[in-house]
Structures are given as structure tokens and as C-alpha cells.
Specification:
This protein is of the alpha/beta class. The protein is built from 11 helices and 26 strands. It has 3 domains: 6-113 and 245-312, FAD/NAD(P)-binding domain (3-Layer(bba) Sandwich); 116-242, 3-Layer(bba) Sandwich (FAD/NAD(P)-binding domain); 331-411, FAD/NAD-linked reductase, C-terminal dimerisation domain (Enolase-like, domain 1), CATH 3.30.390.30. A hairpin with a 4-residue loop joins strand 24 (347-353) and strand 25. The chain is globular, with a radius of gyration of 22 Å. Residues 10-16, 35-38, 45-46, 48-49, 82-83, 109-112, 130-131, 158, 247, 250, 279-280, 296-299, 301, 325-327 line the site of flavin-adenine dinucleotide (FAD).
């Protein structure tokens, strides 16, 4: 075992690399070991389905820190280092190569992995998922010259962003979705339908309410996707984009509580005072929402990693950031702040030009709380929306005034 136990982080991506930086910024000068299963230095994933796939940004531009930064800050970054076990009694993690690394404090930022489609043909060549830089390199190589037939299974954010990039490069794109609108889980039917219209305008063939029976192939390579109604959509490439699942196995095997993600309190601590979790993998008590919240959002990794680092250093942390998310598809950009989990029976209140796709929409629950807000092609709204969400949890909003664009958000 490595002799001097320090602060060990498992998962070298945005949450883990940000946490490592905060440990140093806060003056911790003991060993910091950042262990990552991937072989690329920590990078941000949002560009993988946007600028990188579009060809306007290279991978290096998405690095969380330049490679030299880890050396300069005495961060022991070990790539290709998969952790296979945690011995909480001994205070050590075991690597796939048999080595062990001792810890005083352990942070789990193991993120999430794409869900696999449980159908025949899902392992054929030409069937892809998009999570890693390697995945993105493969997809860009396939789509960049256009002229291919791409079938995207799933119309969540990643599926739609890849559909947009695929169309922009001049490929034929079919999106297969089992729900009756895209993005139904994320945004609800009404706004999901608006995204559906956007994609249809750009030539995407949207097959809604369509289950997948199997993926067909010859010679080990995909040839199409057979739908539940018996029809087959021909394909050169298939992207399975049906969501991600948190990488909780390590924690569960180590006896830590897991419910959707690794359960942590608002200080991002597990029940073991030496073990913390942040980013996509963490299901954290949210002080404002009053429920455990797990989000797969860039901002949560960016801010949650540092919050966990401060907690590891014994600082008083209450991680109460609002979930925040953004997307870019064709000429539409949007930002979303709030609690999707509380938006189930909320009513929608709009400000702006819905048809022109320049508006802000709020989700208001029965108690008059603005549980979420989204700005579409209207910018510099996020701070005001987030402040409004927070205020509305203390005192309900007046919905008529909320819908009146003449009333500044700050006055609600
Ligand atoms: C294509 C794509 C586009 C996205 N676009 C957006 C967007 O527009 N807006 C937005 O808000 N969010 C977006 N996201 C989500 C965002 O990227 C994630 O929320 C963020 O990456 C989470 O960071 P993380 O550090 O928690 O986990 P991850 O980025 O998942 O990293 C976890 C790391 O841990 C490693 N790991 C796992 N288990 C082990 C182990 N046992 N040992 C060692 N290492 C391990 C993994 O290999 C991985 O490198 C996107 C995600 C993808 C994939």
C-alpha cells in the first residue's frame, strides 16, 4: 500500500478534478490521489455531443485543467486506474491491477454510464453510446462527412443533440422514441412537443410511441432497427441514448447506502464520516427542496466536487445549489434551473414569444412555488430565475404577475 494516506478521489472527471483543485486552493498540502478508469485527462462532456461533434471544438479545449496543472499542483493523477474495491476498515481502495491506495478521506465521483438496450442486436458493430471522449471520436468520424443513415434510439438531451449534429453534417436521421413526445421526462409533453417540432423542421424523422423490438444486422454489423410495429428502419449507425445509470457498485459493495445514487447529506458526506460523494453519482439531501436530489448536470459536477472537497477538509458545507442544465440544438439554446422531480403536476407559465422560440417558462406547483424555470433563446435570465425559485419556496408567487412580462422577476 502507498505509505502516506491522503485524500483519494475515485473518478477523474469534472467533479473529481474540480474537487482536487479545491483541496489545493483551500490549502490542503497532503497527498491528493485522483484515480480514473479512463485514459484521457479529466474533461468536460457537454461538448462531446455539441461543439466537438459539430467539429468546431477539439477535445483539448474541453480539458478541466491542462495536463501540466496536475503536476504543478502536486495532484497524483493516475489514468487507466480502475478502482475495484473499498476497504473502509483499512481505509484503502484496491485497483484492478492489484495495487492499493490508502486514504484519510475518500471522495467518490464515479459518475454515470449509459444504459444499454436489452434487445437482440444491441452489441452489433455500429451500435454506439455516447459518454466518453473515445465514443465522441468514433461518432464524429462516422457523421462528419454526412451521407449516412443514423438511427437514434431515445429522445433525451443527448439523443437530440446528436440528431441535431447528425442533420447539420448532412446525414439522414431517424429518432425512435417510446413516449409520445421527445424529452417527456425532462420537460413534460407540451415543451417536449416544441423540441419535436424543432427537429422535424430540420429534417429529423421522429418516430414517436415506437418501441424497439430488436436491432438487425448482417456479418456482425448493424443494418437497421426493427420497431414494435414490425417495421424496420434501415441504419448504417445506431446511437442508443436511453439515459444513464449512476456508477454505484463500488459504494454498494462497500456497504454504503445507495438509493438511485450514493446517499449523502447536504455536506455530501455518506454515513461513513471518511467517505464523500459528488457529481452524477451522488444523491444528496437538498436543503431547499427537502428531498434527495441526484442530477446528471455539468454544473452539479463543477460545483459539487469543490463543495465535497471543502467538506472533506472539515469545513461547514451545505450544498444548496439549484440544479442547472443547458442545451444547444441547431439555433436553439436554453438553460433550465430547478427541480424537475417536483415539476410533475406543475402548471406552465410563459413570458415571451413561444412561437418564435424566445421565451421564459416557469413550472409552478400547487403551493405556488416556482419549482423550475427555463429560458429559451433569451439570455442573462438564470440568476433572476434561480433567485425567484428560492424566494417562492418561502412565499408563493402571484401567478398572474408571473405571467406578465411587464413585472420584473425581481419584484415577484
Ligand atoms: C455527451 C454528453 C453531453 C452532456 N451535455 C450536458 C449539457 O449540455 N449540460 C449539462 O448540464 N450536462 C451535460 N452532460 C452531463 C455532464 O457531462 C455530467 O453531469 C458530468 O460529466 C458529471 O461529471 P462527474 O464527474 O460527476 O461524472 P462523469 O463525468 O461520469 O465521470 C466519472 C468518471 O469516473 C470514472 N470511474 C467510474 N468508476 C470508476 C472506478 N471504479 N474507478 C476509477 N474511475 C472510475 C469514469 O470512468 C469517469 O471518467 C452531458 C453528458 C454527456 C455524456
Amino acid at each position: 500500500m502507498d505509505v502516506m494516506a491522503g485524500h483519494v478521489i475515485v473518478g477523474a472527471s469534472l467533479a473529481g478534478a474540480s474537487a482536487a483543485g479545491t483541496l489545493r486552493e483551500e490549502g490542503y498540502d497532503g497527498p491528493v490521489v485522483l484515480l480514473g478508469a479512463e485514459r484521457t485527462v479529466p474533461y468536460e462532456r457537454p461538448p462531446l455531443s455539441k461543439e466537438y461533434l459539430m467539429g468546431s471544438k477539439e477535445l483539448e479545449a474541453a480539458y478541466v485543467h491542462p495536463p501540466a496543472w496536475y503536476v504543478e499542483h502536486d495532484i497524483d493523477l493516475r489514468l487507466g486506474a480502475e478502482v475495484v474495491g473499498i476497504d473502509r476498515d483499512a481505509g484503502a481502495v484496491t485497483l484492478a491491477d492489484g495495487g492499493t491506495v490508502g486514504y484519510d478521506r475518500l471522495l467518490l465521483t464515479t459518475g454515470a454510464s449509459p444504459r444499454r438496450l436489452p434487445v437482440e442486436g444491441a452489441d452489433l458493430d455500429g451500435v454506439h453510446t455516447l459518454r466518453t471522449a473515445d465514443d465522441a471520436v468514433t461518432l464524429r468520424g462516422l457523421l462528419a462527412d454526412g451521407g449516412r443513415r443514423l438511427v437514434v434510439i431515445g429522445s433525451g438531451w443527448i439523443g437530440l443533440e446528436v440528431a441535431a449534429a447528425g442533420r447539420t453534417h448532412g446525414n439522414e436521421v431517424v429518432v425512435v422514441e417510446q413516449e409520445d413526445t421527445p424529452l417527456k421526462v425532462a420537460l413534460g409533453a407540451e415543451l417536449g412537443a416544441a423540441f419535436g417540432a424543432l427537429h422535424r423542421e430540420h429534417g429529423v424523422d421522429l418516430r414517436l410511441s415506437s418501441g424497439v423490438r430488436r436491432i438487425t444486422g448482417t456479418g456482425g454489423h448493424v443494418t437497421g432497427v426493427e420497431l414494435a410495429d414490425g417495421s424496420t428502419v434501415p441504419a448504417d449507425d445506431v446511437l442508443v441514448a436511453i439515459g444513464a445509470a449512476p456508477n454505484v457498485d463500488l459504494a454498494r459493495t462497500a456497504g454504503l447506502a445507495v438509493a438511485d445514487g450514493i446517499r449523502v447529506d447536504a455536506a455530501l458526506r455518506t454515513a461513513d464520516p471518511r467517505v464523500f460523494a459528488a457529481g452524477d453519482v451522488a444523491s444528496a439531501d437538498h436543503p431547499l427542496a427537502g428531498i434527495p436530489v441526484r442530477t446528471e448536470h455539468w454544473a452539479n459536477a463543477l460545483n459539487g466536487g469543490p463543495a465535497a472537497a471543502r467538506s472533506m477538509l472539515g469545513q461547514d458545507v451545505s450544498y444548496d445549489r439549484l440544479p442547472y442544465f443547458f442545451t444547444d440544438q441547431y439555433d436553439l439554446g436554453m438553460e433550465y434551473s430547478g427541480f424537475g422531480a417536483l415539476a410533475g403536476d406543475a402548471r406552465l407559465v410563459y413570458r415571451g414569444d413561444r412561437d418564435g422560440r424566445e421565451f421564459v417558462v416557469f413550472w409552478v406547483d400547487r403551493a405556488g412555488r416556482v419549482v423550475a424555470g427555463m429560458n429559451v433563446n433569451v439570455w442573462d435570465q438564470t440568476d433572476a430565475i434561480q433567485a425567484l425559485v428560492r424566494r417562492s419556496f418561502a412565499a408563493p408567487v402571484d401567478v398572474d404577475r408571473l405571467g406578465d412580462p411587464a413585472v420584473p422577476l425581481a419584484e415577484l
